Amino acid sequence: MTASLNIGLAGYGYAGLTFHAPLIAGSGATLAAISTSQAELAQHDWPNAQIVADFDALLAVPGLDAVVIATPNDTHFDLARRAIEAGKHVVVDKPLTVTLAEALELEHLAAQHQRLVAPFHNRRWDGDFLTLKKLLADTPEGAASRLGRVTHFESHFDRFRPLVRQRWREEAARGGGILLDLGPHLLDQALNLFGMPQTLSATVAAHRDGALADDYCHLVLAYPTHQVILHASTLAALAPPRFLVHGTRGSYLKYDLDVQEDQLKAGLRPDNVDFGVNPTGVLRVLEGGPDVQFEAQYELPTEVGTYTEFYRLFAQAVLQGGALPVTVAEAIDVMHLIALAQESAATGQRMTVSEVCRAAG
After folding, report:
1. What is the pLDDT of residue 249?
2. Pairing with 145, which of 59, 168, 277, 295 sits 20 to 30 Å away (CA)?
3. Going from the N-terminus, what domains does the chain have, and what CATH number goes with each?
4. Exposed/middle/buried for 198, CB within 10 Å: 0-12, 13-18, 19+?
5. Which residues pair with 321 in a beta bridge?
């Protein structure tokens, strides 16, 4: 890369402070400006960035190539639209938008103005997910992977947060709730591995006392040869495995979330040698043919997590015409499935996945 991408960050709340600012800087891009009401904090953390009060002022900062939208969910569409119309390339934190209709309109606007839009589905670069992708792709020509053919896949994003806090993430009217918060991560990873399912059924509920938005979701995606279970809850004091995969030759088990979020929260920067270093998982497989009873069980090293790869690829796409790390079409597929999950939860029916879903179909 011969030049650095100049990026403006809209919002310095949890997402902007914890994820976007350090990952932008850690990728080699330039964090040129931040719009926030927390001016003193942002200036302290990033003394070389220009700090402005609002989004209009951010768009007016000279020399910005791209804008990152790290604001409440219900503002994503409008701010992304304004950035595109101002001639900026855009990164939008998940979910891309609150509704499928908004996501489709954003795609149209990006094409109309010839701007790049990248949804921030950063958990494609979780270390355990990278490990799982490598494990499933570990297929010498003509042979099965070490797991064989996958028959069952579970992905959990469970936490224990019994108290309902006064914040926009807890308000359905602001685009809050666990389905829109964690559902994009769970669904994007599943689509990245397996493509579009044939059917989807979902339970989406609010289990905590005083909850103003859903805090529990359980999605079942059906494929011709396997089932995919996607689960997120705020009432899991004893968390299940992060990933559990069964195949015709073995199983893979991994506990605990990728470490990068906790490391970023603790102030560890991506250039630290320990950044993204995750605990091992467990792999148990048959050794030899299916008639051989001997099994091997051992710890499987977890790949190093690399969230900065998202911004490295985004900068490369803008400056050199490379592929985007995540496309709007892929995010639209996720939004299609979220819409189907909402309908399934409301009606109690299993939904057929339409062929209109494109990127992963």
Report:
1. 87
2. 277
3. 6-120 (3.40.50.720), 124-305+336-352 (3.30.360.10)
4. exposed
5. none
- Structure tokens given for 336: 């299609």
**Over 90: is that where the pLDDT of 231 sits?**
yes
Answer yes or no: are the C-beta atoms of 124 and 152 closer than 8 Å: no
The pLDDT tens digits for 102-135 are 999 999 999 999 999 999 999 999 999 999 999 9
Helix and strand tally (H, E) in the chain?
A: 12, 15
> Looking at residue 126, what DSSP letter applies?
-
What's 123's DSSP letter? G
DSSP 344-356: HHHH--PEEPPTT
Q: What is the pTM of this model?
A: 0.93
Q: Which amino acid is at 283?
A: L
Of residues 361, 179, 203, the one with CA closest to residue 353: 361
The C-alpha atoms of residue 99 and residue 356 are separated, in whole angstroms, by 16
- Sign (positive/negative) of CA torsion 104, 90, 73, 163? positive
85's tokens: 């119309």
In 10 A of CB 293, how many CB atoms? 8
